[in-house]
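Design request, tokens follow.
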């Protein structure tokens, strides 16, 4: 039996998206920067996609910019904000995805910006009071806090964080990669200045993402060489990817409620069975978690170090850390930040509306088989 429980890493492309992309691939091969008919038709595809995404996210079409990935988007947003907005300090969550953390590390190496990591507890949460106190200091600040943690699933209150940042005059950057397409996001009602998403996290193609830049936040591009994306991102646009991403978000928005109900039920079922049937396990993270991610900590045993290998042999795809660090068996920076004991083994299981109870039961049976101490 083959079981895929790594949907937080990537998702299969939805059939409707494949069909739509195939049509675009066949019929729209012009360069969107060309002024002839084929170029204008290609441009129309891009702008239609932009309108679709802006409507779903409730923002202006002028606030959506297409990129090659969320990683590129976050690099651009963080680095250019510091360079262009007079940022003196970055307050950030040490549990951020590596594209954010590594960007911040690079910024610190090449500037005088002060890095201020928030203190997190064993549940991965931080003190809102501490953040509020920090924001009262008279420094031009960029706050970078993700919406949903990609490893332990923690859901952070970006609505509240955004309000605090707005009151303090701070710029708020939110990594929304794990929430876009999975839960409603209304940028018009959120005090978020900068955000990004990636199509392959919500059943779209790989190699295409976007960044949201609030109309009042003016930054310069990171990639130069052309006037594409209203001078914000040079390079001939990935028409097929852009069209596929917009279609995937459209389908995700249409089916969001139905998908969310199924996923929440799968998470509750799986977590209850794991905790009941495998002695000594616990769920990493806080009580406030997204429903598509479960990080399970397994107790030390003679077999625990081989658990990922045995799952793979049994046809079960899961993750021992974020996918960008796959193959590394040491605890990830997220697990280290929450002081996860290094003699235990944590595995991330992430679900979809496509996940079946039969798949979860099979996974539990394999976990039980390979976590029994001898």
């Amino acid at each position: 039996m083959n079981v895929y429980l790594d949907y937080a890493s990537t998702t299969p492309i939805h059939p409707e998206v494949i069909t739509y992309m195939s049509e675009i691939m066949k019929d729209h091969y012009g360069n969107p920067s060309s002024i002839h008919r084929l170029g204008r038709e290609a441009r129309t595809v891009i702008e239609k996609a932009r309108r679709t995404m802006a409507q779903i996210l409730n923002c202006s079409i002028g606030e959506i910019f297409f990129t090659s990935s969320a990683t590129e988007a976050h690099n651009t947003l963080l680095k250019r904000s510091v360079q262009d907005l007079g940022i003196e300090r970055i307050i950030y969550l040490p549990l951020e995805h590596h594209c954010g953390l590594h960007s911040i590390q690079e910024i610190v190496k090449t500037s005088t910006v002060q890095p201020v990591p928030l203190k997190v507890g064993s549940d991965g949460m931080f003190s809102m009071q501490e953040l509020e106190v920090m924001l009262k200091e008279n420094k031009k600040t960029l706050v970078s806090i993700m919406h949903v943690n990609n490893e332990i699933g923690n859901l952070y209150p970006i609505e509240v964080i955004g309000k605090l940042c707005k009151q303090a005059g701070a710029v708020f950057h939110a990594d929304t990669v794990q929430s876009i397409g999975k839960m409603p996001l209304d940028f018009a009602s959120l005090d978020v200045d900068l955000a990004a998403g990636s199509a392959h996290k919500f059943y779209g193609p790989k190699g295409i993402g976007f960044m949201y830049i609030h109309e009042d936040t003016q930054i310069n591009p990171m990639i130069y060489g052309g006037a594409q994306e209203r001078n914000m991102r040079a390079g001939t646009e990935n028409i097929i990817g852009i069209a596929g991403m917009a279609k995937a978000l459209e389908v995700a928005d249409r089916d969001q409620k139905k998908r969310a109900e199924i996923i929440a039920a799968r998470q509750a079922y799986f977590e209850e069975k794991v905790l009941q049937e495998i002695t000594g396990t616990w769920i990493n993270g806080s009580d406030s978690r997204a429903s598509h991610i479960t990080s399970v900590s397994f107790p030390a045993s003679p077999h625990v170090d081989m658990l990922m290998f045995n799952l793979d042999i049994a046809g079960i795809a899961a993750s021992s850390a974020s996918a960008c660090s796959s193959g590394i068996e040491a605890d990830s920076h997220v697990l280290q930040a929450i002081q996860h004991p290094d003699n235990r083994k944590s595995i991330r299981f992430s679900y979809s509306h496509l996940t079946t109870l039969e798949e979860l039961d099979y996974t539990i049976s394999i976990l039980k088989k390979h976590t029994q101490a001898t």
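Comment from the thread starter after seeing the answer: thanks! The longest helix spans residues 239-277.
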